[in-house]
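The pair is quoted verbatim below.
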Amino acid sequence: MPNLPQDVKRSPCFHLKGTLVSFTILDLCHFDSEQFSTQLADKVKQAPLFFKNAPIILSLEREECHQVDLLHLVELCREYGLSPIGIRGGSTNQQIQAEELSLTVLPADQVINLKTAASDIDSAEKNKELNVLEDKPLNTRVEPETIFLPAKVVTTPIRSGQKVYAPCTDLIVLAPVSPGAEVLADGNIHVYAPLRGRALAGVLGDENARIFTTHMEAELISIAGFYKTSEDMQEFWKKSVNAMLENERLVMQII
């Protein structure tokens, strides 16, 4: 082992940091291998870049799914480019199998976080001052006592590969969002320019959140986990759009 200077020895080897990560939950209703494979292939074709290496949680909460061979299900998902990282619910045998496959096991009715605090854990007190919400599950509703911050306003283009997130507030973008870019907000998203990347509003589960844009060309939009890909939005293409949830369905209106 190299003889390190004292100041290096006293400094921490690592920092634990939170970040915002989006997950897709594959909610299995029933399972037939051939039907599942066909439907998954069709879905991946709609947005291949979105699903490529996408981390997913396999929801096995329905009793009719408790006999599914988890290894076979995981292999099918990987065949189409998805990356299962855990299961939710499932039978005892499936949970044992998940552990053997190094998958995380989440109890039924618990969903993976869409976000954790966006700063170093060492800055927990600062996070409290900024009203950053930590460890909120996907289906958490924004409580009335939550203090929302002033809207985050972005005036420069958001390039491919960039991600802009507005915690505890709305996001207003006054410049184009390029393909491959991602804009996210706990509240509403307004894009007064072409929206060509991905837009995820209500990421803490607020079903009242909306997405507005003057020029819809998005790869994907999502509100509280309900999403549409570009294939589902052709009649709204390049138009001014208001997207919202109605009865757990993502609907769009031309404005």
In short: The chain has two domains: 24-111, 152-254.
